[in-house]
Structures are given as C-alpha cells and as structure tokens.
Amino acid sequence: MRLNGRDYDRTGLARLAGDTGAAGGVRAVVLDDGAERGIRALEFRTGAGLSFDVLVDRAMDLGTAEFRGNGFGWRSATGFRHPGLHEYRDDDGLSMMRSFSGLLLTAGLDHTLFSAEVDASQYRYPPRETVWNGLHGRVGNIPARLHGYGERWSDDGECVLWAEGEVRQAAIFGEHLRLTRRIEADVGGTEIRLIDTVRNAGFDPTPHMYLYHVNIGWPFLDEGARCEFPFERTTWQSDSVAEQGVSNIEMPAPQKGFIEQVYEHELKPDAAGKVRPRLVNERLGVFFELEFDTAQFPAFFQWLHLREGAYAIGFEPSTHHVQGEAAARENGSMTFLEPGEERRYETAFRVGEL
C-alpha cells in the first residue's frame, strides 16, 4: 500500500511500527453523553486522511466523517440520538427528523419516503389488515448485531479496514427482513465501500424498498460549492423549486427560512451501469463523490436543505421513485421479496483533492 508517497508491504510496515494503528485502524468506542449516550460506534481512520464513524446501534450507518480535518458528514442539531429514545409514530410520522444527522441514514427495509398506510394481508393476521409506515421506515433506528471488525491484508498488498454486522427488522405477524452490512476502507485510501445484502428471512412475500440518504455538510458544503451530475433529465421537482428559484448546481450560503427543495433526476450511467454524482469545493480544493449501480438503485433524488442552522445537501439513490409506496403498489412497480430471496447493493463514498 502507498502512504505519504512511499510503498509499504505488511513486513515493511511491521518493521516500522508494532501496531498497524500507527498507519490507520478501527477502534470500538461507546458514546457517553447526552442523547447519544450508550451508542456503540466504530472509529475508522486511514493513513490518507479519511476518518469516519460507524454507528453500530443505528443500523451501522455512517455518522461523523472528515477528510484531512475538514468535515463532510452532515452534523445536525439532533446529534446521533440513541435509538432507545426514538418513538416511531411521533410527530405524525416525521419522527426521523429528531434523529437525523450524519453522512448516511439508511431508509427501509420495507418502506421509504413519506408516511403510508398499506395493505398487510400477505401476513394473514386479521387484526392487522394494514400496516402504517412513517417517513423512511424503521431500519435507521435499529441496533445491529456486530459480527466483527478489524484489519486484513489483501492479496494485492493493501491493508483493508472492515466491519460487519446484521440488522433485523422483524415483527410477529409481520415482516422478517435482515440487512447484512459490510463496510471497508483501505488504510492507504480515501474511499468507503458499503456492501449490503437484504434478505427475506421470513416465509411470506414481503415488501422491500431501500434508499440511502447521503448527507454532505459544512465545510465541504459552502457558498460556491458545485454539484456535478451526469444529467439526462429532471423527472420531478418539489413546488419549492419554482417558488424559491435557488440553484441546485451552484450552492448559495445558508438561507433564512429556506424550504427544502427536492428533485428526482435521471442520470446517465457509464458502460458498467455506474453513476458518480459529485460535490466539488474549489476553495478548499476537495470533492465528495458517490458511486452506485443504476441496476440496483434505478432512482436518484437530490435534496437541498440550505436553511440557516441546518445546512446540508443530500444525494439519495433509491430503489423506487419519489411518489412512494402507495403509488408503487398501484402502478405495479413495488418490490416483494419471496421467502429466502435477497438483494445486494454495492456503493462507494469517495473524497479527495482536486
């Protein structure tokens, strides 16, 4: 692996340091104050200047994230609230807004987007004919069972930091879905790799919707920062776009009373089916890039939340379009996983210098 302009193999690094942690590593900690108290976290740190936290008790989502001292994972006023404080039906289905912070919030596993009450007859339980789902579903506030974490040397000589765990979303007379999540980062690199598998571990056909709410904040997001997308066309936008007229390409400073602007874009994939939307900050000389497979995530949303005190931009690859679950059921595009069926999602988060 290459660090600070020099190449190292496993033996060469061992000659210099008795612990790989001198170059980079993963450390298990427990957050211990305020609403975060009790959350297990894994601190990843690479020798190329990338650091990020994996929130084990928050579906192994990504919290704080920095590159060479500059933050890019959004930090909201809610902090990383312990899931034990979460009330799913609070705020008329908007309870996620009381625990919404960090680089990645996972939405699903059976519902994404806005609240919906839908048919649940597949579970064959007469007292529960329908199921009610809040904004972006339940999974983001379910603790994971941690399988392990650490480091391994790959065949090509790279030291890989990793963590893996399982999140179970299950109910009697309801869904039984399991998310197995693996997170990797090279000690010599500035890329986070996310490998997710969602499996129907139950015995009834079960709805499946999946979305990554990837949130970039200050200082990567700042006045003059620019979005770079391989646009084909914009297929939907919120009413606030026309009302406010704020560009979704050139980012302004925080706005007083800003109403979120949301877009669904059709992006042009490369020959391998991949797209790489970016946020570029030329003043800092840095970029953030998300890479995903359009076969796995056929829809993509851009979220602008440029209000004072909650300044963020979101990239959102999704399995379903912005109209949500009720519309997907009506038009036949809703995904149902058969017993034992699974879906795999491979995504990369990259930062670097221009």
Written account of the structure:
The chain has 354 residues and is mainly β. It has one domain (2-353): Beta-galactosidase, Chain A, domain 5 (Distorted Sandwich), CATH 2.70.98. It contains three helices and 26 strands. The longest helix has 7 residues, at 10-16. The radius of gyration is 20 Å and the shape is globular. The mean pLDDT is 97. It holds the Pfam family DUF4432.
CATH domain fold name: Beta-galactosidase, Chain A, domain 5
Q: Name the structural class.
A: mainly beta
Shape assignment: globular
Helix content: under 10%
Q: Quickly give the CATH architecture.
A: Distorted Sandwich
In CATH, what is the class?
A: Mainly Beta
Number of domains in the coordinates?
A: 1
Report the sheet with the most strands, covering strand number, pairing sense and barrel closure. 9 strands, antiparallel
